[in-house]
Amino acid sequence: MSNSTEHPIHFKRLQREESASFDRSTLDYIHRASSTGLYEIRGLGAKRKLPHFDDLVFLTASLSRYPLEGYREKCSTRTVLGTRFAKKPVVLDTPITIAGMSFGALSANVKEALGKAATAMGTTTTTGDGGMTSEERQSSKTLVYQCLPSRYGFNPDDVRRADAIEIVLGQGAKPGGGGMLLGQKVNPRVAQMRTLPQGVDQRSASRHPDWTGPDDLTIKIQELRELTDWEKPIYVKVGATRVYNDVKLAVHAGADVVVVDGMQGGTAATQTCFIEHAGIPTLAAVRQAVAALQDLDMIGKVQLIVSGGIRSGADVAKALALGADAVAIGQGVLMALGCNRDSYQQGGQTHSAEADYTALGTQAGYCHHCHTGKCPVGVTTQDAILEQRLEPDNGAKHVKNYLKTLTMELTTLARACGKQDVHHLEPEDLVALTVEAAAMAKVPLAGTQWIPGHNLG
Amino acid sequence: MCGIVGLLLKKPELYSQLGELMVPMLIGMHDRGPDSAGMAVFGQPLPEGQRKISLYSGLTEAGAGYDWVALVDALNAELKVKAHIQTKGNHAIFTFEGPADPVKAFIKAFEDKLHILSTGRRIDLYKDIGTPAQVAERYDFSKLVGSHLVGHTRMATESAVTPDRAHPFTAGEDFCLVHNGSLSNPNGVRRMLEPRGIKFETDNDTEAACRFLEWRLREGDDLHTALQKAFEALDGFYTFLMGTSTELALIRDPFACKPAVVAETDDYVAIASEFRSLAHLPGIEHATVFEPAPEEMYVWKI
Amino acid sequence: MENLTFDLSRQSVRELNQHLHGSPESLAGQHVEVLHPDGAHNIAVGINAPVSVTIKGHAGYYAAGMNKFADVTIEGSASTGVAENMMSGKVHVKGFASNGAGASAHGGLLVIDGDAGLRCGISLKGGDIVVGGSVGSFSGFMAQAGRMVICGNAGDALGDSLYEAVIYVKGEIKSLGADAQLEPLTEADTTALADLLAKAGLAHAPTDFKRVASARSLYHWNADADQDY
């Protein structure tokens, strides 16, 4: 053997050295783009690692503060939304609500399951782009009805049947963009509800058809108040970008409740460039929203709902401590229903879904194929066979369990901080584990007094 | 995001009623802009060689108690410009002889927190935080006299609610502009103008539009040409209403997202964001009422 | 027929609307006159009864918004979003209408004697709109179902991203939007036009109109279509 074939091992590694700028995922991106001439569309939210609630921890009580007894002493989770102008505010038993997701993106069974779970938990569920289904109205005691740019299925009867109206300006996954529903999900019922031809690749508008800007929004809110005889709370939902200004303006325009959706928020179908490159993390968005409410002296008058990547009771507790009055959960709830699980339950049996994941070219744990409508566990589908895989009662039980777990975790942490009410959590109960999280959440880095950028504006 | 109003009187015998006719117009735009309000009024021109500047003292420590007399005495002692003043609380109009720049430089050096609102031979400008009704009351808007005016009520979008960020914005002499909408490239416009020696006083997007137009006018463009260049340079949503010494001009962006309505009679041309502000005008029931088209320039002369 | 008058120089829009939200039985056949509207917003929104309303002057934003069953006449002009999201009934504007007239209307008939501003019939979902004058740019944007009749001219990008709605234009079309195309007028079209023009009280020959409908090339993602999505 000659020496030339006996390169040291690191020579071989050098031959396979990956470029940081053109890493494997960038190469895949370019190869895909050059093959199709069309941007990638997918479901779920941002996949990149972002500063998040995980980067915060609670300073629970020990000697300077006294904890409440975890299993006995009262810790209230009651939450009231819409106290500013509405004659009939929304009263919740838990500050954890279910985010707006459309019938179309989700099946009618899923919408029904969400309504049942929310009702059992004393919280709200929310319609989405495409209107209100009779299933979700009947199963939801308290239902928030969205008014979106597309106005698909939007009608005054459903406005009157709703318990609150949410004017949607944007979504954390795609602030500044409209919704999408690919043709395979536009089945006859979806098409009929949206007044669209069956099977079209539906692109929603990004701006409302009859108003632009906060001065017009003021009038739009008044219209909805007039229509509902000033009974129902009006929420305004924004995707988190210029949060401080947007929240201020939503309040100026007369919102009862402001919903801020951070960039980890999900979607059933959106351009990847939007999902990964627009908006700010939820952690940063909460504090900007709270600052806007504080500057307007609107804390406790206009309520703040935060959403975007909230998964656990700890996330909820941290969002509340940072100043949210409630949270909204979308993706976590879908996962409770079985999203990305390797099996589904149908007819009292557990069935493997692995072959269906394989057919989509993915596997349980990595699936983001909501846009295809071929959800192996029957959650984000309109397919007549697949949708049977999610049975409303079974789904409702899972979602209820999930929300119950989250609520218990929330009160566990609140009690440990010595609070008899989860709304008494405050930013001072938190410290950050990373400099980034400390700067965004404006809480000190653990073990220090240091809040990066503090007092620098 | 705001309400705008404009009024141009066609008959000199009506000039004394300008303020009285305008105040309900401004108050009609309360809901569109409750944060601050402002008004630029164009009256009889000063004699050749004289100029006036409007000043605001609300940002100084003394505020409405500012010692205007001390300032005018110092100005006359130093520059010999025969300045005299009319004051109204936070607000003063200095009339003087000769060019404006040395006077403005002197005032800035004397008290840098004084805000110079406008300069020219016809224009007086008032703006302050507060509702339209409060600001109108504070500065006796109903008693204003002149041939035409441009007014504004502001709902702040991105820049803060302060008197200097209220509209109208002015640049150069006898030119002002108000804006309803939101520009999407104000910082780029600003960075293009600053190296040309054009100074900005606020971070407001409207100021960028105003200084752009004034720059074009100073470079020799007529109003039409300047507005054409504005269509190319400015991005975003806007309805602009501008006042010059003898004209009102209006443009809307190609998307015409922000409203505007015009009413014209033999006596006046009145412009507002909404009809609500025109409803009280005399003879409105027989006026020609129309919506200005997008990307069109409308110019009305006194 | 019962007649009732609301004078908005003395009474509030709230009082008017609260009355108009009374029980459909009590409102049926009633005629309500609205005096001194003076551009007030949200006049007669959310009516859910076969009542007739005459607004004696200029209306502000969203006049007769989300109308159901009612017959609303605006004797002056209407601001942004007149008859937006109408479900049924009729709204008649005798002057001009501003932007977004009939936006997202699911049903009913909107007649505008004068011109309409930009985005007339945007996101139309089944209503009919007849404009005696011209319409501004982006009219019929993403219109999904329903019919628009434009007796004057149309601005830029008419019918951009049109779905199944059909637009008839008598005058000039400044430009068609993406996926909108001119199609030959069929007999069914002239019958429909004659009916709509008659309902609007406008005397035009149906055969003088051009038909604009969707080319349906944007119904599915298609990289080769060379379109901006």
TrEMBL record, chain A:
One GO biological process term: glutamate biosynthetic process
SUPFAM superfamilies: FMN-linked oxidoreductases
UniProt KW keywords: Oxidoreductase
Source organism superkingdom: Bacteria
Tagged with keyword Lipid biosynthesis: no
Gene Ontology MF terms: glutamate synthase activity
Coiled-coil stretches: none
Residue ranges of every copy of the Glutamate synthase domain listed in the record: 82-341, 366-419
This protein's record includes keyword Zinc: no
Family statement drawn from the similarity comment of this UniProt entry: Belongs to the glutamate synthase family.
Protein name: FMN-binding glutamate synthase family protein
Organism name: Malikia spinosa
UniProtKB/TrEMBL annotation, chain B:
Protein's UniProt keywords contain Calcium: no
Domain of life: Bacteria
Keyword Chloroplast included in the entry's annotation: no
MF GO annotations: glycosyltransferase activity
SUPFAM superfamilies, alphabetized: N-terminal nucleophile aminohydrolases (Ntn hydrolases)
Keywords, ordered alphabetically: Glutamine amidotransferase, Glycosyltransferase, Transferase
Domain Glutamine amidotransferase type-2: 2-302
InterPro entries membership: GATase_2_dom, Ntn_hydrolases_N
Entry protein name: Amidophosphoribosyltransferase
Automatic annotation (TrEMBL), chain C:
Protein's name according to its UniProt entry: Protein glxC
Naturally occurring in which organism (per UniProt): Malikia spinosa
CDD domains listed in its UniProt record: GXGXG
Lineage, broadest ranks: Bacteria, Pseudomonadati, Pseudomonadota, Betaproteobacteria, Burkholderiales
InterPro entries: Glu_synth_asu_C_sf (IPR036485), Glu_synth_lsu_3 (IPR012061)
Gene Ontology MF annotations: oxidoreductase activity
Cited Gene3D superfamilies: Glutamate synthase, alpha subunit, C-terminal domain
